[in-house]
Amino acid sequence: QSNGVAQQISFSINNDLLPEDAEYIIIRLQNPVNVTLPGANHFSIFITDNDKVADVATEAITLNYVSSFSNGPAGPNSAEIVSYDAISKRLFIANSLGAKMDIVDFTNPATPVLLSSISMTPYGNINSVAVKNGIVAVAMENSNPQLNGSVVFFDQNGTYVNQVAVGALPDMLTFNNSGTRIITANEGEPNTDYTNDPLGSISIIDISGGVAALTAANVTTLDFTAYNGQMSSLKAAGVRIFGLNASVAQDMEPEFVTVSNDDTKAWVSCQENNALVEINLLTNTITSIVPLGTKDYSLPGNAMDASDQGGVIQIANWPVKSFYMPDAIASYVVGGNTYIVTANEGDAREYNAYSEVNRLSSSAYPLDATAFPNADVIKANLGRLNITMANGDTDNDGDYDEIYSYGARSITIWDASTGLKVWDSGDDFELITSQHPQISAIFNASNANNTFKNRSDDKGPEPEGITVVTIYGKVYAFVTLERIGGCMVYDVTNPA
Fold first, then answer.
1. Is the pLDDT of residue 336 over 80?
2. Which one of 107, 329, 409, 434 has the fewest CB atoms closer than 10 angstroms to its CB?
3. DSSP H or E stretch at residue 125
4. DSSP state at residue 439
5. DSSP assignment letter at 251
């Protein structure tokens, strides 16, 4: 509009009837005559597709709400990890905020009853709990988290039995299938000043002789010092090693463990490193570190809602890649081959002395003009997206040639023998929750509030937990969504 004269530009949008993600048009004025263009010379028009419908649940199995159990007021209590003992029909809950382990009678799932709460303060800080054959094992980080932690053993009544030392910050533990060993993922995170960065490690505890007689001789702790000389090749392969002045052994941070059906191998997710580690349980050795690569949000079926602003869901393709960075993982066998399923939560390194996180809009995050000729448009539309500054400057010239974010907002199935991706759920999670009759109202909300789209600029629905179960000859993956809550179930009988 100039001198009170408006000029209208009209164009029509044809309904092509093809189910597609949201699309967008960028309008920009060029070659002006006698006009000074504004600084932000672009306008984005989004077109949401009314033809793209989320997958409809087959309801081959159904989930019915039975009951809930609260172990105390929110705030001073939590129930992050829950393990069930089939012998005693009890739940054992890692109540990290309450610094205790809660024991619950689960004989009747409709009416769970709190039996007792065991203080964990004498042993450190509780991170996880697992139970098998009546043995309760608890992963305890040291009161100084950079020192070695421990696994503490109790009986079904919460009576202390024994404890052994493991690596620093044991974050998760699991029994093998035969119940003869316990494997812990010792994350080994640095302190917030990054002046003490312990080794990430995996501990293997032989409990075949019973837990009462356990000593340090029954514990084997594996670290990554043998890989310290391979930092360049690991980085080149795609393993994220970027901690402040960290060696490979310090930078690797084991998160979660799954064990093969025959108990000969274990796989460990290293979340911040975006890698899977294979363990030979026959020789107690690390056999490989496998980078997981990235998900490309510019590809069809890989769209995402990338902003917490605007109040409208826009699941669209963008020139962004994201590291899978799984938290929980599980494994199962089909046709003699093992497959690993990962819950691709994503997790950034944020410490006082070093943080990789920034907003895409930040002036400290310049985009390469050749790779992103419309950088101003990308920053305007994706400016709220949290990205990493640790990756993306491929030619080391100070600007970013690729944009990387955290987590794939999906689950992925990997071939354990090759490390190759077999299948990924794409943009299913956001598409399904955006069209759900109840959940859509809190689409990508946070666990701390019910604000619509609150987590779209972070990691979306944030799949965190996963377990794989065979029911009536079919293999199902149960996936928990950390932020909006709830459980999604996939038939993964055919990994492809």
1. yes
2. 107
3. strand 125-132
4. G
5. H
